[in-house]
Amino acid sequence: MSKVLIIAEHDGSELNPSTAKVVSCAAEIEGAQIDVAVFASTAGELAAQAADIQSVAQVLTIEREENEHLLAATLAPQVVALSDGYSHIFGPSTTFGKDLMPRVAALLGVNQISDIMTVLGSHSFKRPVYAGNAVLTVEAQADQVVVATVRTASYSAAAGGNTATISAAPLAVDLPTHTRFIDLQSGASDRPDLQTANRVVSGGRALGSSESFDIIYKLADKLGAGVGASRAAVDAGYVPNEMQVGQTGKIIAPDLYIAIGISGAIQHLTGIKDAGTIVAINKDEEAPIFEVADIGLVGDLFSIVPELTDAL
Known about the structure:
15 strands; alpha/beta; globular; Rossmann fold; 9 helices
């Protein structure tokens, strides 16, 4: 029987929805026992949230002062210490998972599988390559633990209503001291998180300036949406890089994605291909974004977007 250990992502008080999406992936492995590990300084409420996720058999809590902030350098040796008896160790393909899971794989001496989008068998998976233009079938060695990240855009979050058991798992492992938490700086915002928002409004280089992005923010606020941007807009300094959507940014799958002034480079399309409905607004009727858009509007964004915002 396969035993899957999932590393929970959280902010100290709430589980990231990516955790429930990784559970959905693990549940595709026939007959798998799925455990979730919660690393935190105080894991009580977080463990209860994890125990509520369907298909989870057990939640393991690892409470240490060092786990108040989830640093990959200190988490990785703890994950390895907890890994005995598990055939699979999964994490999300978020910034958190992409930082942590390669370290875990290296410490275990195995290759990591990235961005699982389909489970074919206990050791056989599909993952996208070449910016999503091709899908690769990967076979992991049957005698080695499978360390992998799950492409969260390919899965819906597992439902709640479960009552998994919760157990403490104290680990006697020395942690490295070369990495330590100093400070967290982030912009205050009431908007939904870009990676978990059901609606996202993104702006591109055509906005022309950071000040012009105000029309994107106003539309997003009317829709209760998260805000993203193309790499061109980020590189131009209009918005910070945490807002970048695409192959080298965040890969998202909202129900509604509105691309404003974005031409649609393949790297950007990779990040939105799993969106439910794609709406494009661009003055260039030949822009590649219209090839994937469900709804397209050709025109001046500086006229269209304010009118759309006022009409909502």
